[in-house]
Amino acid sequence: MLPATTLLALLPLALTAPTSHRRTVEPSRAFGLIASRSGTPIHLQPITASNSGLFIGLPTSAYCPSPPVPDCAGYSNDTLLICGSQTGSATGCSMDAAVPGGQQLYVDGTTGVLNYTEPHSGYIPPGAITSGFKYSPGNATGDGGQSLGSFGFCAEQAEGLYACPVEGVKGVWVVKAPVKGVEVALCLGMGVLTAGSNATAWEYT
């Protein structure tokens, strides 16, 4: 495992949106995700939102309609989440999206994939798990920064997060929780690091 100072130096690679695409929100309210599994292709790779799910190896799929949104330049193209608790306890989480109605994060009860609701739709499929996410933010550092935090999943039905190769697409992994009936033998169990951000997106597709 690399020291936190080295990991922090790598964060610009994971959160690449330029400053002009950021707007200020509550400090440490949002965070980005980075996969952690030493000695594997996924190590220190950003976890991104795409096609209503979380992936490694795909660019973030964020969108801002202009018009009617008057200032799309003020929104980020980073993948960012917010959670209802910052104490490390099990909780619900959402994408950090400004679109009315928000976009809730959930684990699909059939596939185990970490998905999020579509913009302008609160639909969550039957059997999905909407709680059990654990977020522990990093601590404040002496130079005014923040150390890396952690993100995980623990529910009665499943525990842990995995990166599973997408069949037929080299270098792309989908993030899953090991719910009952989901095969993870070909997947990589992983830790997930978090980096606080002052950005937010309009919506994720």
Question: How does the SSE layout of this entry go?
Answer:
Layout: H1 4-14, E1 30-36, E2 46-50, E3 53-56, E4 62-63, E5 81-83, E6 90-91, E7 93-95, E8 103-107, E9 114-116, E10 133-136, E11 149-153, E12 161-165, E13 173-176, E14 188-197, E15 203-204
Antiparallel strand pairs: 1-2, 1-14, 2-3, 3-13, 4-15, 5-7, 6-10, 7-8, 8-9, 10-11, 11-14, 12-13, 12-14
How many distinct helices? 1
First-to-last CA distance? 33 Å
Order of helices and strands: HEEEEEEEEEEEEEEE
> Globular, elongated, flat, extended or rod-shaped: what is the shape?
globular
Overall pLDDT: 85
Q: Strand-residue fraction?
A: 25-35%
* Main sheet overview: 6 strands, antiparallel, barrel
Q: How would you classify the helix and strand content by structural class?
A: mainly beta
Number of β-strand runs: 15
Report the uncertain regions: 1-10, 12-27
Using the CA coordinates, give the radius of gyration: 16 Å
Strand order of the largest sheet: 1-2-3-13-12-14
Helix coverage percent: under 10%
The assembly state of the depicted protein chains is single chain
